[in-house]
Design goal:
single chain; 171 residues; alpha/beta; 4-stranded mixed β-sheet; 43% helix; elongated
């Protein structure tokens, strides 16, 4: 993968090059297996959301090139059922509150969940690694299950009730 320095050098090497940025329809999604007995409790799902630093993901994985996408997304682009400010409040980063909820649920010594992700791009691998680190900071250990896209899609469609998180990117 080219680095930022490679990009900068390329731009300097030819003054006629233009750098154009735009949003695409690519989205990064995190699914929770809601019919699992453990993940049925909304407090646990809320703790998972509170443990995620969405701005950190956007800055660290996509060099700041991204927007928040909430539970009621737009079809494409920046227009959403909720504004960026509303999404940032709804899905705020608060690891202290996440730990408090986990303790309230009896997981003060931690919790382990299966974490499925696909291997389509380096960004998916990086995002999954960041998510695992963020969860670990609040006491949730994610057991990674890495699948090629087709296998992960079949697994997702089958459902099941084991507690797991799934990370997927749709283009």
């Amino acid at each position: 993968t080219p680095s930022q320095r490679d990009f900068d050098d390329l731009m300097k090497s030819n003054p006629r090059l233009q750098h154009m940025r735009s949003l695409t329809s690519a989205t990064q999604n995190l699914y929770m297996q809601g019919n699992s007995p453990i993940l049925k409790d909304i407090r646990l799902r809320k703790a998972i959301v509170l443990a995620m630093n969405h701005d950190g993901l956007i800055k660290g994985v996509w060099d700041g090139n991204g927007i928040w996408r909430g539970p009621v997304p737009s079809a494409y682009g920046v227009n959403s059922a909720l504004s960026q400010e509303e999404l940032k409040e709804l899905m705020r980063y608060d690891p202290g509150e996440a730990r408090k909820l986990l303790k309230e649920l009896g997981y003060e010594k931690g919790l382990e969940l299966e974490f499925m992700w696909r291997t389509n791009s380096i960004e998916e691998v990086l995002a999954s690694d960041v998510i695992m680190q963020q969860m670990k900071q609040v006491g949730i250990t994610l057991r990674p299950q890495i699948f090629p896209h087709a296998v992960a899609r079949r697994h997702h469609q089958r459902g099941g009730n084991e507690p797991r998180l799934e990370e997927q990117q749709f283009l």
